[in-house]
Specification:
Adenylat/UMP-CMP_kin; ATP binding; two-stranded parallel sheet; about 180 residues; 4 strands; 7 helices
């Protein structure tokens, strides 16, 4: 039920309200206090950050400083095969035949939240709400920023930094989604 509500906000190019997002995230984090974990895209507002701080001790916040135009180009070039979830990117991982899934030959679709007008609205909302979060964590001495436009150029710096925080993480483990 909460997921359907969240999707309605995303489809409109709006960010999910703090109370809904915080409830979702904090319920997922319960029981993970024995583990190291990395959150991607949360918290996005100061209210979310404050709620997270009440429940968890945050060691580090990583800011990927990527120009919005780069993000917009990547997202709007993303197309999917709905039945399988296969993702293509017209710029760096295109299908063999434009608009067609490589395996089934079925048409690819662009998600509503990847359409240019929706991406622009999402990025504007993200910028307005997230800058204060960066300042919040900068003031706490927890923020580390990495700037760039290409993953393969940013990642080695992030990996080296993470090694100082989690020295037992291997390159293989770091490249494997969990």
């Amino acid at each position: 039920e909460v997921g359907i509500l969240a999707k309605s906000y995303i489809d409109q190019g709006r960010l999910i309200p703090d109370d809904i997002m915080t409830r979702l995230m904090l319920s997922e984090l319960k029981g993970l206090d024995r583990y190291n974990w990395l959150l991607d895209g949360f918290p996005r507002t100061v209210a979310q950050a404050e709620a997270l701080d009440k429940e968890c001790q945050i060691d580090t916040v990583i800011d990927l400083d990527v120009p919005f135009e780069t993000i917009k180009c990547r997202l709007t070039a993303r197309w999917i095969h709905p039945a399988s979830g296969r993702v293509y990117n017209l710029e760096f991982s295109p299908p063999k035949v434009q608009g067609i899934d490589d395996i089934t030959g079925e048409p690819l679709v662009q998600r509503d939240d990847d359409k240019p007008e929706t991406v622009t609205k999402r990025l504007q909302a993200y910028d307005a709400q997230t800058k204060p979060v960066l300042e919040y964590y900068r003031a706490k001495g927890l923020l580390k920023s990495f700037s760039g436009t290409e993953t393969n150029k940013i990642w080695p710096h992030i990996y080296a930094f993470l090694q100082t925080k989690l020295p037992d993480v291997s390159q293989k483990d770091a490249a494997t989604p969990r």
